[in-house]
Specification:
This protein is mostly helical. The protein folds into 3 domains: 2-55, no CATH class; 57-97; 100-128. Helix content is 71%, strand content 0%. The protein is built from 8 helices and no strands. Helix 2 (29-38) packs across helix 3 (40-49). The longest helix has 26 residues, at 100-125. Residues 67-158 form the Reticulon domain.
Length: 158
C-alpha cells in the first residue's frame, strides 16, 4: 500500500513538473522557479484567464478585424451566412458530386442569358441598355501570336 502511494506522488510530481515546463517561458526549470517566486499571482492569473497561457486576447490571435469577428461569432448574421455558404458548397461538391468547371460554366451561361434578356427588355420598358465596355485588342501582338503558333517563329507573316 505504501508503494502505491509513493508511485502516485511520484506520478503527480512528474506531471506537475511537465505542466510547469509547458507553461514556463524558458525551458529551464530554474528560470521558472525564479519567475514564480517573484510574482506568483501573475502566473496564476495567466493560467486561469488565458487558455494555454496566451498573452494576447483571442480576438488579436485571429488577426483582429472582420475575420476575427466572423470566427468568434461577434456578428452572428455574417457568421451564419459564411457557415451556410460553406455547407452549401460542401453539399454541392461532395454529396451531389458537382464539379467546379460545370458550376463556372452554368454561372457564365446564366450571366449571358441575363444580359441578353436585359438588353432585349430595355426596348419594352424604355430604359437604357446595360453598358458593356468595348474591348479593343492591338493588332501586332495578335499577329505575332498567330505567326508563332503557325510557324514556330516569332516573325509575323505580313
Amino acid at each position: 500500500m505504501a508503494e502505491h502511494s509513493e508511485s502516485d506522488s511520484k506520478g503527480e510530481s512528474f506531471m506537475d513538473t511537465i505542466v510547469e515546463k509547458l507553461h514556463s517561458d524558458d525551458s529551464s526549470s530554474s528560470s521558472f522557479e525564479s519567475n514564480s517566486d517573484k510574482n506568483p499571482k501573475s502566473s496564476v492569473k495567466t493560467k486561469i484567464f488565458r487558455l494555454f497561457g496566451r498573452e494576447k486576447p483571442l480576438h488579436k490571435v485571429f488577426g483582429g478585424g472582420k475575420p476575427a469577428d466572423i470566427f468568434l461569432w461577434k456578428n452572428k448574421k455574417i457568421s451564419a451566412g459564411v457557415l451556410v455558404g460553406a455547407t452549401a458548397i460542401w453539399i454541392l461538391f461532395e454529396l451531389v458530386e458537382y464539379h467546379l468547371l460545370t458550376l463556372v460554366c452554368h454561372i457564365l451561361i446564366l450571366l449571358l442569358a441575363t444580359l441578353f434578356l436585359w438588353s432585349n427588355a430595355t426596348t419594352f420598358i424604355k430604359k437604357s441598355s446595360p453598358h458593356i465596355p468595348e474591348v479593343q485588342l492591338p493588332e501586332e501582338p495578335i499577329l505575332k501570336a498567330e505567326a508563332t503558333s503557325r510557324n514556330g517563329s516569332a516573325k509575323p507573316l505580313a
